[in-house]
Amino acid sequence: MMNRQIRIPQPATMFLLLTLLVVLLSWIFDVYGLSVEHPQTGEEIRVQSLLSAEAIRWMLRHVATNFTGFAPLGLVVVAMFGIGVAAHSGLLDAVLRRHSRNKRTPRNVVLFVVILGILSNVLGDAGYVMLLPIAATLFHSVGLHPVAGIITAYVSVACGYSANIVPTTFDAMLSTFTQEAADRSGFPSGYAGPLANYFFLALSTVLLTVIIYTVTRRKLLPMLGSYEAGFSGYKQLSRKERRALIAALLTGLFYALLIGWATFSSWGILRSVNGGLIRSPFIEGILFLLSLGFGLMGTVYGFASGRYRSDADVIEGLTQPMRLLGVYFVIAFFAAQMCACFDYSHLDKCLSIMGADMLSSLHIGKLWILILFVLFTALINLIMVSATSKWTFMAFIFVPFFARAGIAPDIVQCAFRIGDSATNAIAPFMFYLPLVFTYLQQYDKQATYGSLFGYTWRYSLYILLAWLLLFICWYALGWPMGI
Fold this sequence. Notes:
With about 475 residues, the chain is mainly α. Helices cover about 70% and strands about 0% of the residues. The chain has 20 helices and two strands. The chain has a two-stranded antiparallel sheet. A hairpin with a 6-residue loop joins strand 1 (about 35) and strand 2. Helix 5 packs parallel to helix 7 (about 145-160) and helix 9 packs antiparallel against helix 20. The relative contact order is 0.16.
């Protein structure tokens, strides 16, 4: 039986209550005139009350656009189209049935999901949308609880967002602010490029893999127990289905080669105007490209296997996910209003900058202030989850501060990335929480933030402590963080 957690309101209700809390706090801090100065631009940032006449007019005017402009909404819908066709046509089922002939042990499936989740940040946020439902199916196929698959994939993607053995565009984005802050500090801080933390984060990939795998095997799986809708096994593929699967896989291979050629060849139409991958059509459209690939493969499989006979069948496959997304839309609506109100009030920026100023005023040893910086970042991450948004102002506070103490910018950036990633899985303001709840409620109708927190807090705590210990040892030994 599933372990029930402390009674917490349903996800949509939780986001509504959080919105009301933001409204109340914005009014209180506005009464006391809370304001800060942005360290990069020098402009004054003041908390804006959401109970003022102007704010009420803003809310009424932007209820619809807050929802339609919610960052993950369009990405989720577009991605689910391709997944829907792949599932409806029988492609995903055929892949699992094909590989069910191999004796896959549960431990191998858990390890595969963990590694795939951590490495998925190469494709931006694709892991949140694509991997979670696939992980649930994989876990179910080997007799494990599908909720465990969702949680394992979610934690791997969220807490492992900074760790990778492959450089990502996220590395380049953060290093841009780090270098600018270092240049403005006026200190000979050296160069902080995209590979400034590569050595440390590559080893961190192994560390996080071990932690997530161990916690899943020893804590999460025993906690969830068996799943009532047991898995009875897959039937073997027929000859026609095997041929259809080969045709679909060949289609996927040709599509991948085409996308690779359009990105990395001399033509490079999917690269940015300066020839790089940062803010390129390839990176910004990766979810659509993946969805299109899944859709094409599903369509080919459907027609080749005889499941599809006309375009009407394909359209039916496209509409399949809409039943699931009905729940997502309700949760996302309230989450979108909360995020928009939080951003409008400037509460996140004011509280973060105030905390950063207080921390930078402390006069203690270098290592201790770095440890406090990691813990402070982990705490701030609970209310301000966007790493780039945090680093756009934190870099201009802490890089000069640590430079005066003789600590290089790459070390500061590395400490920031530890705190920024470790608590992602328990952050109530995480943009993809509505989607996580939607997936969870397929298997547990009573899933709330309380149950999600009950599953994930161990991961965040162990990852934060182990990652911080690795950082302390690395810093004490004086090893280079990267190139």
